[in-house]
Automatic annotation (TrEMBL):
InterPro entries: Adenine_deam_C, Amidohydro-rel, Metal-dep_hydrolase_composite, Metal_Hydrolase. Belongs to the metallo-dependent hydrolases superfamily. Adenine deaminase family. It catalyses: adenine + H2O + H(+) = hypoxanthine + NH4(+). It comes from Cytobacillus spartinae. It comes from the Bacteria. Residues 411-571 form the Adenine deaminase C-terminal domain. Keywords: Hydrolase. This is adenine deaminase.
Amino acid sequence: MLEQRYRWKNKHIREHVSILDGKLSPTILLKNARYLNQTFRKWMTANIWIYKDRIVYVGEMLPENIDENCEVVDCHGLHLVPGYIEPHAHPFQLYNPHSLASYASQFGTTTLINDNMVLVLQLEKKKAFSLLSEMRSMPSTMYWWCRFDAQTEIQEEELAFSHSNIKSWLEHDAVLQGGELTGWPKLLDGDDLMLHWVQEAKRMRKQIEGHFPGASEKTLAKMMLFGADCDHEAMTGKEVYNRLMQGYTVSLRNSSIRPDLPKLLDEIHELGIDMYDKFMFNTDGSSASFYEQGLIDHMIRIAIEKGVPVIDAYNMGTINVARYYNLEYLHGNIATGRVANINFLTDEKNPTPISVLAKGKWVKRDHKKLDEYKDLNWNELGFGPLQLDWDLTVDDLQFSMPFGIKMENSVITKPYSIAIDASLEELSMEHDECFFMLVDREGKWRINTVLKGFANKLSGLASSFSNTGDIILIGKSKQDILNAFNRMKEIGGGIVISEDNRVLHEISLPLKGVMSDKRVEDLIEEEKILLSLLKERGYRFADPIYSLLFFSSTHLPYIRMTQQGMYDVMNKMVLFPTIMR
């Protein structure tokens, strides 16, 4: 437990041992189990004894003591593999950590290693740690990162990312790594405080996750010297090769904005790379609808289809991750002493399980979901509805900036000179320029410009979902922007589209305005409607959720809207500051 120093107390371990002595009965006995043994790198048959949340024996023996409370399962005809591990989850992309874990478990991903960004920006440290503690009671295992920077230019960053806060996060038992290092240019520029945090993480035997898109061989070497251990930003086979050459573990990505895995595997094989021990998989916090096809199980399937040996494909989603994080004694394999996370397959080439054990509990049985994920009291944990005690007025909707922001794809934005008359109440539907605002969630400041390339027929959109939880407003009609904002405020946060002064679609986000409390399955349908409506109105990219998230994200080029103002990423300067309201 997170409140105690060890995962199992002494008395629990004595109970585990007493099962082998026949004094206690297992709670589950898996007989005749054909399972993946990663020590011998082959499929073997054994009997697997489980007591509550732990595997207490794997081998030929059967227990001496089997009481009426022991569930005996004949696994003949099934193939057992360890529960899959997602090493790079961003569990706040409209869904929340609880709903994502519940959904992921149905596809066999029972351990997630999670970004802590939203917890740092939205909660006090004590509340955040209470949430981590609450999540210990779930069948899924939840680990966390420790961010070193906000990934944007925020006000009072030195408070959210103070030395004492970073130190407390790094020391937390549930935190496995520092990063991801979106602020790595600061290291190169001489930021010794960030280097100290990296050093502290390494001293604690915790890993450092990089974020190095397009990095040169020399930069990769420098970041390895600074302490980076892994990077998930390779977009070509050559970039994978360069990372391996510099000693990195490479996390191969397949996400909603970078569905790269098939191409990466083809190019890796073309380069003659046929060793897979330094690879693992990640989905990089994809939008909910992308997960309709699965999570790590889907990546294992792609790997098998692309010619990766079956055992290596499973290892990349299990034991490789556990070894990298020094957790092999708990996760990533079916062996004595491990947490009882086991997937039951009908075919070794079909990694989506028909049944799933997570911490020794059935969360899926014969294709049916079992509801073992009890609801959290989000209000008590600090995630109540967004409460705005201020109003947006027509006076706020003044647009006179000389240049705006142009979208190159879902997430890359460039500056451009505004040639239209932005003083009108409505913009023409004949072009793809919209009014664009970022407003402080406390109502203290705003910044107004024009956004090109997002849509050409969008009347009004308001979103409390953003990198920092501030309010994004986009649209052609000032009246519909106001209407969307007022509805978003009324429902306690969310994403709202308004047209002809009526609400066309809304996704309620009652958890601080940044997360839904609905099941991922329901959220997928709401997200599909949002995408369809935006595409009908001229949105031409893949992922509007990430577009909204990354408008403020300064780890990507070139121009961003931040709490400091319009920000030039490459030159590290504020071009136009925010305006106080």
